[in-house]
Every structure is written in structure tokens, then in C-alpha cells.
Design brief:
By secondary structure, the chain is mainly α. The chain contains 5 helices and no strands. This is Mediator of RNA polymerase II transcription subunit 10. It comes from Cryptolaemus montrouzieri.
Length: 131
């Protein structure tokens, strides 16, 4: 059985196709096309009703507002996910670099402290459990 999201996707695809066909009919309108246009407009209304019926089944789906910005800009909304992953990877590398720098700093600081204050550092390590 198809999921609620698949049903919604199917309805939206049919709706989009219907709008595309209406656009074709209207852009080169001929009087003999009136009946077909009426049928397409009725199908458009029916499609909106079907989408409205499905809204309760997908009410827990949250879409980031940025996705709508992508759509408004004529960009593929799937690029949003790709961009988010790329940003997360870049941020991960940046944070990893900071962690590595702090580890090196800690190692150097402990080395210098052991040279300058060996007794105090031994007491510190004993308190910290031998770090």
C-alpha cells in the first residue's frame, strides 16, 4: 500500500501535469478547445480537493522554510539537502581542526608545565587520575 507521502506526491504530479496541459491549451486557445479546457479546469479543482483531503495524513511533515526559498528562486529543492550536507561537512572539518589545535596546545602546555613545575604537575596528574 502506498504511503501518505507517495499519495501526495502522485496527486501533486498529476496536478502539475494538468496545469501544464491547461497552459498549452490557453497559450494557443481555439474555440473548439473550450470543452477540453473546461474538463481540465474541473480536473484542476478535483486535484486541489484531493490534495486537501491528504493534508491530515501528512500534517506532521515539517519542511524548512529555506526549501521554499529554493523553489521560489527556481532551484531544485533537492539541492537544499545537498547544500546542507556540504555545509555540515565543512563545519565538521573546521571543528575537527579546532579540536586538533586544542589537543596540540594541551600537549605542549603539559610539556612546558612539567619542565617548569614538575612537582605541581605530578600532583595535578594524581588528582586527575593520571591524564
Amino acid at each position: 500500500m502506498a504511503s501518505s507521502l507517495e499519495n501526495l506526491e502522485t496527486q501533486l504530479e498529476m496536478f502539475i501535469e494538468n496545469v501544464r496541459q491547461i497552459h498549452i491549451i490557453v497559450s494557443d486557445f481555439q474555440p473548439q478547445s473550450q470543452n477540453v479546457l473546461n474538463q481540465k479546469l474541473q480536473a484542476l479543482v478535483h486535484g486541489l480537493q484531493e490534495v486537501d483531503k491528504l493534508k491530515s495524513q501528512v500534517k506532521d511533515v515539517h519542511v524548512p522554510l529555506e526549501v521554499f526559498d529554493y523553489i521560489d528562486q527556481g532551484r531544485n529543492p533537492q539541492l537544499y539537502t545537498k547544500d546542507c550536507i556540504e555545509k555540515a561537512l565543512a563545519k565538521n572539518e573546521q571543528v575537527k581542526g579546532k579540536i586538533d589545535a586544542y589537543r596540540k596546545f594541551k600537549a605542549n602546555m603539559l610539556l612546558e608545565l612539567s619542565r617548569t613545575f614538575p612537582n605541581e604537575l605530578n600532583k595535578y596528574r594524581a588528582l586527575r587520575g593520571g591524564e
